Amino acid sequence: MKHLITLHDTAFDTLEPLATPILASLARLAFVATLLVYYWASAMTKLGDGLFQPALGAYAQIFPRKMEAVGYDITQLNAGHTLVVMVGTWAEFVLPLLLLLGLATRLAALGMIGFVVVQTWTDVFGHGALGQPETLGAWFDRIPDSPVLDQRLLWLVVLGILVLKGGGPFSVDALLRRQAASG
């Protein structure tokens, strides 16, 4: 048995130096392949007449209960609401772009984690997912694809890898790091 454990450890110890570059690269690829277009499409639905004029739907998506309470009249909202909508919309464009490029990867992934947490809070409490078992889902069940608990946990794991490991060897971060080391 000791021989098998030694063989196992020797085989996998040789893979250990590859763990960070492989995990970082795969995490970026997973984010870009599955969530980049999702977030950009979502951001596009929030654009009104330019980047500084969010659409009515942007307010309804981000502040659903507040919009219902004011009869969908955005003039009854304050500047803070507009600021949150604009920053949220820009974040849906900028943060995924940074992750695609691998630029400021750790900070962009951390920003996306914050975004996903706020998005989830809004979905659960603002859009009523708390009362929709098929949307909310449950962990440790046989159904792996609920939009909130199951999918968002996987998103957070991918983003957590990027926070901890960075953008990998094929990122702008790595290119800048190599240039700084050589110059």
Describe this structure in words.
This protein has 183 residues and is mainly α. It has one domain (21-182). Helices cover 73% and strands 4% of the residues. Strands 1-2 form a two-stranded antiparallel sheet. A hairpin with a 1-residue loop joins β1 and β2. α2 runs antiparallel to α5 (79-101). The model has no long low-confidence stretch (mean pLDDT 95).
Describe this structure in a few short sentences.
By secondary structure, the protein is mostly helical.
The run of helices and strands is HHEEHHHHHHH
C-alpha termini separation = 51 Å
State the secondary-structure class: mainly alpha
Sheet-strand content, in percent, reads: under 5%
The radius of gyration computed from the alpha-carbon positions, rounded to a whole number of angstroms, is 21 Å
In total, how many beta strands?
2
Q: Regions with pLDDT < 50 over 5+ consecutive residues?
A: none
Strand count, sense and closure of the main sheet? 2 strands, antiparallel
Share in helix: over 70%
Instruction: Tell me the domain tally.
Output: 1
What are the salient characteristics of this protein?
9 helices, 183 residues, mainly alpha, 4% strand, two-stranded antiparallel sheet, 73% helix, flat
Write the layout of secondary structure elements.
Layout: H1 2-13, H2 16-46, E1 47-48, E2 50-54, H3 56-62, H4 64-69, H5 79-101, H6 105-126, H7 133-136, H8 149-165, H9 172-182
Antiparallel strand pairs: 1-2
